[in-house]
Amino acid sequence: xxxxxxxxxxxxxxxxxxxxxxxxxxxxxxxxxxxxxxxxxxxxxxxxxxxxxxxxxxxxxxxxxxxxxxxxxxxxxxxxxxxxxxxxxxxxxxxxxxxxxxxxxxxxxxxxxxxxxxxxxxxxxxxxxxxxxxxxxxxxxxxxxxxxxxxxxxxxxxxxxxxxxxxxxxxxxxxxxxxxxxxxxxxxxxxxxxxxxxxxxxxxxxxxxxxxxxxxxxxxxxxxxxxxxxxxxxxxxxxxxxxxxxxxxxxxxxxxxxxxxxxxxxxxxxxxxxxxxxxxxxxxxxxxxxxxxxxxxxxxxxxxxxxxxxxxxxxxxxxxxxxxxxxxxxxxxxxxxxxxxxxxxxxxxxxxxxxxxxxxxxxxxxxxxxxxxxxxxxxxxxxxxxxxxxxxxxxxxxxxxxxxxxxxxxxxxxxxxxxxxxxxxxxxxxxxxxxxxxxxxxxxxxxxxxxxxxxxxxxxxxxxxxxxxxxxxxxxxxxxxxxxxxxxxxxxxxx
Length: 495
Hints:
Largest sheet: 6 strands, mixed
Structural class: alpha/beta
Strand content: 5-15%
Order of helices and strands: HHHHHEEEHEHEHEHHHHHHHHHHHH
């Protein structure tokens, strides 16, 4: 194949790629679609983009990224994404840098492994109509996260710790003790009595994070199906509230029984059948450790704690008296900002409060913090664009790369030395050229981790000398190269 590449005047790597793309009957194994391949932004492309942008600005037109990208494609033949064009304009001071608004942290789904390992508890309001009068109840429901089995329920006036314990007792009575309980951060779910109950029965408390599809989404999906099946309960008779409650309890009991007989999509067994399958002690231990690791990750890191200390220090220093909900919100969102931005905002807040004391409140502080953080983000993005796509920076990098290539040893230099060795007739010149080529090849091998890559570069460079050498001369040079590479490898293996 190497000789074929030299005869066809094609690099060995290109011919190898062609060979891999066809079968024995020369039918293509796959048809490339070109997706994911973007053009490399060269110095000339940057110059053309800058000149085109300056022309538009000189005509008094406003630069808009998408419209300008379309203009470059139609008028100048430059095909790039609007994001890359925007970065080039930012790097050359033709467009202001503007980063997106910071978003809250992402919460990964809480995985589920074994039946009766993690039970999800949540409450929802349901209404029973007696004639024209409505009665509202709070329904607590327990659902196994792995199997979607509805394991217990309770109907009460409000969501209380007693109702939660009642549901857990129903679950334990029918299915045994679970490893963990998943719930939201409601006051009743995190009450002292519930915590004591969980501690006594060795059940891990796993709070659900925001936007977590495997948090209480399990229970929310169950309530959605329940309400869709039951519909509106409207009884046309005059009876006390206890009748309404008993009717609702019966309807829910019927629904749970029927639901547990229906297999979840993608499963052959019904939820109640899957709940009866036992898990080994090692599986339960692994699941318990996973739940504990998940809870441990919810703890505040050292960096976040320093940010909380900063906001608490600011509140104490200025004697701000925020409401509990306001303080909780401040503690939550302060973690999304950088410590340097918080420190700078604190200094600016002190100056602003000294001028006008009525500004001494948390909303005003977070307004300053948001502005400073935005400026820092924009500056970082502007610096990134400048170092990558600024015309002067690219020109300087190109010069440095060219100087390095001129002063450094390369494959081309070794091949040119071997060309002299096969063309010259003098014995002294031949020996000197071969000796220098061997020495330089060994130096090049020190900078390569895989010798096949160096070997491929030698092959491509030798194939490019189509007009200067005959096929016999190329074969002789290639024999020298293989000898240099092999002798170095054998010497290392002996030592």
